[in-house]
Amino acid sequence: MAGFTLPDLPYDFDALEPYIDARTMEIHHDKHHAGYTNKLNAALEGHGALESKSIEEILRGIDGVPEDIRTAVRNNGGGYANHSLFWTVMSPDGGGEPDDDLAAAIADTFGSFAQFKETFSNTASGRFGSGWGWLVLDGGGNLHVYSTANQDSPYMQGHIPILGLDVWEHAYYLHYQNRRGDYISNWWNVVDWAQVAKNFEESR
pLDDT (tens digit, 0 to 9) for every residue of the chain, 204 residues total? Predict the structure, then answer.
């Protein structure tokens, strides 16, 4: 069996309340993320060359993954990587705005933090069906905001995600029902800009 393991949440299930409720966090992590992890491992079993790679390497080379397991690896590998980032970019001490180099890069690219926030929120909100909103770095170190469908990962496009927002219904439905916009606007209160800035620096 391949060796991807479910990462622990870096805080308690109820740590992000009232913005994200404990029951949602528990199901999201212990059922959904665990499910992607187990199915990814099952898909990779017996594919030794892939089993020795990082999830980022696998997703960057998704077109080279054997066709019989490619869809399973795309969906579950993406789900594994996306959620592994998602937990880390939130914190009970989150919110506010970034500073230093990341703040400058955001202002440079989007005009201001407020404009970035609006662009990101609209992009995540406008994703039809299930998917993610992303802030990514391209190969030239430039920032972009876009969304992906289902569990597709920016790594598949050669980009490095530094901030991601899960807009699958399972991420918010218990608390917000169909009010995706309320979930997104409340989510900004838990974004861990220190971690996002660290992702930015390491990715450059």
Answer: 458 999 999 999 999 999 999 999 999 999 999 999 999 999 999 998 998 999 999 999 999 999 999 999 999 999 999 999 999 999 999 999 999 999 999 999 999 999 999 999 999 999 999 999 999 999 999 999 999 999 999 999 999 999 999 999 999 999 999 999 999 999 999 999 999 999 999 998
Put the strands of the sheet holding 160-166 in their side by side order.
143-149, 131-137, 160-166
- Domains of the chain are 22-88 (1.10.287.990), 100-203 (3.55.40.20)
Full DSSP string of 43-78: HHTT-HHHHTS-HHHHHHTGGGS-HHHHHHHHHHHH
Identify the residue whose tokens are 């220190």: 194
pTM across the whole model: 0.96
Helix (H, G, I), strand (E, B) or coil at 123: helix
What residue type is 84 in one-letter code? S
